[in-house]
Amino acid sequence: MKNRIYKYFFHEFLSYFTVVLFALTAIIWTIQAVNYLDLVTDDGHAFSIYLYYSILTVPKILTKLIPFSFLISLILTILKLDKDNELLVLWTSGLNKIHVVNFFFRVSLLVMISQLIMTTFITPKTLNFSRSVLKNSQLQFVPSLLKEKTFNDTVKHLTVFVDEKKENGEYRNILIRDDSNILTQVSDGSSTIVAKRAYMSNDEKSLILYNGFIQKIDSKEDVNSEATISVISFDQTTLNLDGLTTKTISDPKIQETSTIKLLECINFKSTKYHDCTKNSPAFINSKIEINKRLGIPMFLPLVALLICFLLSNIKKNSSLNKYILFFITFSFLIGSEITVRYSGLSSLHTLTYYLIPIGTLPLIYLLLIKKFKYENL
């Protein structure tokens, strides 16, 4: 009988949890995706790359929203069961409230394990993969390079300036600074291209320049030699822009680094990805990131126990008490996000951060036992 009751409770909780989590994720993902449009408009990536990159950020959003969604879902589940008088029937039939508390505690452990899997494995993997998608993508919207009265340096070592853009697609007074031989294929050194007019080819992969010159600066062969400057004039020339890549950050950030590599960094076993010397900013940030991944999910059982105080004669509780309980529980979640930012400063900070949920859990559980043991139903 109890198993059927618990299955029903779990089904109700899971329904609310799924709806709340994915509804909030859809809202935040939409807002975030709008911000990522700069990848197309400014950086010149293809729309498919933008969409793929945006989708790969969904696990990060899910991970962030799991604690709050768990809190809301648990509250909605208890209030729904109480509104339908289902809890009253269970209490009068002799079901011990502490058994329901234990059930919700086990549910919180299940959600905690799920979030741990997300934070330690899935999210860093997808974020790192999304970075590689940008790193390996080529510039697709070449016209985004040619912005009027703007020095555009979207492509690394390449700066483009256009004085005026006509409605017929003509560009006036173009200056291109090529510091890495991307366009001019100079063996060494850099070059500057100046043209009075230019048009984009029909396939938007080439730029046709008219009435200009190319100034090439060959690098010194040795310290005592002088750089050689040569100028080549042209009536018409074509620059192949196909295959250009943007200078979007391609190195993995701390949150995109795998948990294993972060642990190696903390133990001074790896310095390949970040500066892992003790007390360096990267070392401290690695500790903070590890604490985020492992510590924040540990607050979920604490949330479950705090919300279980709603089981105490719900109908006799004022709405104000329910809001106070929500505020207290929500404050623990906010506190976990704030305190984790200081958890990497020292071993004492780290220990204190983990002791907050671990030390508070038995106290809250004992209070629940005492409250439900002597409560008149």
Structure overview:
There is one protein chain. This protein has 377 residues and is an alpha+beta fold. The protein folds into 2 domains: 260 residues, no CATH class; 96 residues, no CATH class. The protein is built from 11 helices and 6 strands. Strands 1-2-3-4-5-6 form a 6-stranded antiparallel sheet, with no helix packed on it.
Write a brief caption for the model.
Helices cover 53% and strands 15% of the residues.
Comma- or semicolon-separated keywords:
11 helices; alpha+beta; six-stranded antiparallel beta sheet; 377 residues; 2 domains
Number of helices: 11
Strand order of the largest sheet: 1-2-3-4-5-6
| Content of β-strand | 5-15%
Portion in helices = 40-55%
Distance between the termini: 21 Å
Unreliable residue stretches: none
Order of helices and strands: HHHHHHEEEEEEHHHHH
Overall number of domains: 2
Could you report the average pLDDT, rounded to the nearest whole number? 83
Q: What would you call the shape?
A: elongated
Instruction: Please identify the structural class as seen in this structure.
Output: alpha+beta
State the major sheet. 6 strands, antiparallel
| Total E-strand runs | 6
Rg from Cα: 30 Å
